[in-house]
Amino acid sequence: MAGGKHDISDILDRWKKRSKGTPALEKVDAAELAEETVEPTPPVEAPVEAPSAPAAPSAPSEPQPMKEVSFDQVVTTGIDKLDDLLMGGLPKGYTVLVLGMPGTGFELLAKQFASAGAAEAGENVVYYVTNENAQDVINTMKHFGWPTNFTIVDISTQYYEKVLKKELEVATLQREGVTISDIASYELPEEDILDEFRQINFLDEVLYDITSLEPPFRIVLDQLDFFLEHYNRSEVLAALRSVKMHVQNTFGTMMITLTSNADSQIQNAMMSYVDIVIELEIKRMASDFENRLIIRKVRNRPDKNAILYYSITEKGITPEMVMRVA
């Protein structure tokens, strides 16, 4: 039992050394992380400008032809041809849902969208990642030569460190036959024990974090599957509706990724909430594959529905041909 007791002491020592009062969501400066391996292009510093207020709606006496959104009311998606298919870009205040199966590149589209915001002076870009770590995101950005002056919230790593690792430590203690009296004899304060076993609600933390952002901002939530797996579905949907309203009323932009058909009920609900729905598909064509980016929904603009055929090049997702949906 001596060896086991030594392991237990190590675990309890780590509990005592963990700092108090650290934020639940730790953030990583992507540019600083990228500097550890390469010399990045210095970010362009510019004063932050408040988004232009929307024009007051007019009441025409006759039906007027539909007009595209003016340039100062949109942001680029990072893909010029996709901008053209939309309204010259993504209108400020809009939320985009990106659906896709593994292998289609839908998570790459999220990074391309984030990089486009990082290239814009004064735009605050925050990338919430749940299925890979911050270094993975940076490596992809560097591979395609995309800017990295944005913030990463690495939920994947934090979930491991603050929840899964904790559960493994508890299992270790149980395997060693540790009792409450054993822990008490180690002089670990009860409040430390409670803090150590109090699980963080990442859904609430992300909701609070996003709704605290000041414009102009661009949010990427990649992927929603994590929250659907770990939290009540109705709570996830309620949180997303709150986030969407914040984005809409502060004229920010947001992109959310979700695995296609992972949960049809949730997917349908999400498609009804958001302003734009894009789905990436990959089809087997004889001895080759065909990639399709399908614009399934643009709020109040069904004429914008289209299919864009694309390939993955050194520039990322690269459009090749467009077919309008009748």
Largest sheet: 10 strands, mixed
Q: What are the low-pLDDT stretches, counting only 5+ consecutive residues below 50? A: 1-6, 39-51
Query: Can you tell me the CATH topology?
Result: Rossmann fold
The total tally of domains equals: 1
Percent helix range: 25-40%
**What structural class do you assign from the helix and strand content?**
alpha/beta
- Per DSSP E runs of 2 or more residues, the count of β-strands stands at 12
Average pLDDT over all residues: 82
* Corresponding CATH architecture: 3-Layer(aba) Sandwich
What is the overall shape?
globular
Strand content: 15-25%
Radius of gyration: 23 Å
Question: Which features does this protein show?
Answer:
326 residues, single chain, globular, two-stranded antiparallel ribbon, Rossmann fold, 10-stranded mixed sheet, alpha/beta, disordered N terminus
Task: Describe what you observe in this structure.
Helix 5 links the parallel strand 5 (124-129) and strand 6. This protein has one domain (25-34, 72-324): P-loop containing nucleotide triphosphate hydrolases (Rossmann fold, 3-Layer(aba) Sandwich). It has helices at 2-17, 30-34, 80-85, 106-118, 134-144, 155-175, 180-185, 190-197, 202-211, 225-230, 233-250, 264-273; strands spanning 27-29, 74-75, 90-91, 95-100, 124-129, 151-154, 217-222, 253-259, 276-285, 288-298, 306-313, 316-324. 40% of the residues lie in helices and 23% in strands. It starts with a helix and ends with a strand. The strands form two sheets. It has a ten-stranded mixed β-sheet, sandwiched between helices. Strands 2-3 form a two-stranded antiparallel sheet. It contains twelve helices and twelve strands. The protein is of the alpha/beta class.
